[in-house]
UniProtKB/TrEMBL annotation:
InterPro entries: KR_dom, NAD(P)-bd_dom_sf, Peroxisomal_Beta-Oxidation, Sc_DH/Rdtase_CS, SDR_fam. Gene3D superfamilies: NAD(P)-binding Rossmann-like Domain. Belongs to the short-chain dehydrogenases/reductases (SDR) family. This is SDR family oxidoreductase. Residues 9-205 form the Ketoreductase domain. It comes from the Bacteria.
Length: 305
């Protein structure tokens, strides 16, 4: 059933050939948006290229009575990212919403991580979000409206094993979003993040070598990508005009507002600090407020509901 929460808005969704991106693209179309379905059709590791996934989602949208066009450019290249936004302009005449969803994983423990594994993940997630957002920014500024929805992750916001590349990129995206929100507020442009918990092809590469890892994956399989889409559509709508610079997490039927770094506790010494007094005074005084060395699964340690 088609309705009109984002009626006639032109929405670019990157990495929309499957998983979370596909469900966001479909949900946007159901609410009246014209959608650019971007996906290079690569594997989770970013290998290969295939036009099929993007076009398949376009076909689904058209079957619903919606409007959509496929794009297979890579977000990780500046010129290609500009072509993604160009597809929106050429096909539908404008751009209103950018959903930065494209991503790959190259999980590896930090001390074993290669430069290529680091570079490729940073390039797709962080550079990709920057390149696509930057390409849209001139249009948003000129029309004095626009919405960015970026995908961050609790792997970056909290922490996880074996994901230094992914975590660094995802925490960088949270900072990128906040900076966009600050810099472009005067143009009526909004920027927010979603940290999604959802079973997807990308998450499917998580190792399941131990019973604990298998149990974690089994829990995650309950969280379908479709659960993420309502938040993305809501943030894209004019009804959320006062929501910007925020980080939300969506976990099955739960929605969280995530904290952002702020001072927790302070100590002061009138005569200033020496390395010795830092050790004997500052660190002991602050220690009770230290954060545990926990992971996303330690913080979100209950079964999804």
């Amino acid at each position: 059933m088609m309705s009109s929460m984002v009626q006639d808005k032109v929405v670019v969704v990157t990495g929309a050939g499957g998983g979370i991106g596909r469900d966001i693209a479909l949900a946007m179309a159901r609410e009246g948006a014209k959608v650019v379905v971007n996906d290079i059709g690569a594997s989770v590791a970013g290998e290969g290229k295939n036009e099929g996934p993007a076009q398949a989602v376009v076909n689904e949208i058209k079957a619903l009575g919606g409007q959509a066009v496929a794009n297979t450019d890579s977000v990780s290249d500046r010129a290609a990212a500009a072509r993604i936004i160009g597809t929106a302009i050429e096909t539908f005449g404008r751009i209103d919403v950018v959903v930065n969803n494209a991503g790959i994983l190259r999980d590896r423990f930090f001390h074993k991580m290669s430069d290529e594994e680091w570079d490729s993940v940073i390039k797709v997630h962080l550079y990709g979000s920057y390149y696509v957002s930057r390409a849209a920014s001139a249009h948003f500024k000129e029309q004095e409206s626009g919405v960015y929805v970026h995908m961050t992750s609790t792997s970056g916001l909290v922490g996880n094993f074996g994901q230094a590349n992914y975590a660094a990129a995802k925490l960088g995206i949270a900072a990128l979003s906040k900076s966009i929100a600050l810099d472009m507020q005067k143009f009526n442009v909004r920027s927010n993040c979603i940290a999604p918990f959802a079973w997807s092809r990308m998450i499917g590469s998580i190792p399941t070598d131990t019973p604990e890892e298998q149990a974690r994956v089994d829990r995650m399989k309950q969280m379908t990508p479709a659960k993420i889409a309502p938040m993305a559509v809501a943030l894209a709508s004019d009804s959320a005009k006062d929501v910007t610079g925020q980080i939300f997490a969506v976990r099955n039927n739960e929605i969280f507002l995530m904290s952002q770094p702020r001072p927790v506790r302070s100590v002061h010494r009138g005569e200033g600090w020496t390395p010795q007094t830092v050790l004997t005074h500052a660190l002991p005084a602050l220690k009770k407020s230290f954060f545990d060395l926990d992971r996303s699964g330690d913080v979100f340690n209950w079964d999804p509901v």
